[in-house]
Design goal:
The protein is about 45% helix and about 15% strand. By secondary structure, it is of the alpha/beta class. It has one domain: Glycosidases (TIM Barrel, Alpha-Beta Barrel), CATH 3.20.20. It has an 8-stranded parallel β-barrel with strand order 1-2-3-4-5-6-8-9, surrounded by 6 helices. Helix 12 (about 255-265) links the parallel strand 7 and strand 8 (about 265-280). Helix 8 (about 135-155) runs parallel beside helix 10 (about 185-200) and helix 12 (about 255-265) runs parallel beside helix 13. The protein starts with a helix and ends in a 17-residue tail after the last helix. It binds (3S,4R)-3-hydroxy-2-oxopiperidin-4-yl beta-D-xylopyranoside. (3S,4R)-3-hydroxy-2-oxopiperidin-4-yl beta-D-xylopyranoside (XIL) binds near residues 81, 241, 272 and 320.
Amino acid sequence: MHLPRLVAAAAATCCLALLPVTAATPAGASGGPSVPDRPLRQLAADDHLRVGTAVDMSALTDDAAYRRLTGSEFSTVTAENVMKWEALEPRQGEYDYAAADRLVDFARRHGQKVRGHVLVWHSQLPSWLTSGDLTADELRAVLHRHITDTVRHFKGQVWQWDVVNEAFNEDGTLRDSIWLRKLGPGYIADAFRWAHEADPHALLFYNDYNTEWTGPKSDAVYDLVRRLRAEGVPVHGVGFQGHLGIQYGLPTDMAANFARFDRLGLATAVTEADVRMEMPADAAKLATQAEGYRRLLDACLRARHCISFTVWGFTDKYSWVPDTFPGEGAANLFDEEYRPKPAYRTLQSELAGRARSARPDDAGRTRPESISQP
Ligand code: XIL
């Protein structure tokens, strides 16, 4: 989880050096008022947006600084791992909700909403499910039961559920998962129907990565949700994970892509934003990273029904990136010592600027709470 020491030191040095300059940057075009140093959740509230983070439950328990910022900066939380199938149902029919319940309780005490992550995914499944020799009928019953039990357990406490995660390949074909192989493509509609039966008030999302811009994968998601809606399947939103890497160049047409989902009448959300880089970090890379975060937020703020902007962890101290992408890191808003990076100041500035520029008579963005099911 931790960056190598030297790299961390380099990242810390560069961010600290940049901080005063960034913080003093005026928000207005020509010498407007400087950016108010208010928590993201307050600034986002002015834009009718919830801002969230994925939460690492060990860090929440053991690290007071982490706990403080989780509560003060964010108005929604997502379980980074503890609502995944392997964590919730490690043995068939035996649930362990303890860690997830602790997060839901934390959220309640801090006035936060909860994104439930995740009901149907090909990854982090328990071995009894993947290595067991379940027939198609048995697997379908197991999926129905897991969705029903889990969504019922959290009924009324989860705002948005990621019902199906990462079902597509990059070319827009359906991913070859245990679900597709054994149940066929109908598993997707079934999952949404079952989740809706278990909690009719939860907002149900399809969630994926590399779908933030237009292309075969995002086209496939678009076609899927349009068809599901036409068939009366209760899908309410599309989540764009937002895992970017600056070495690939920053995407340019995210706002247009979010807009076409918005026009379908669906809610949208950025669900797992982080912007990684090849290490070591330097000032130029951190500036590009800040622009990556800004573009993701901008795409969301331009979409009338984009109701939440969630980062996949907020500190480089606990990030999935170095473990998953060797040689890469520094992907989050705060460094390992909880110092805000340029990306954090940029989000503050973008949120504050948008709120100021909204016309009083503007119909404006939908309030997140007012999104309802069809
Ligand atoms: C990641 C977690 O951050 C890691 O701690 C875990 O080891 C693997 O999963 N897309 C998703 C998330 O939908 O659930 C993944 O989270 C990151 C990619």
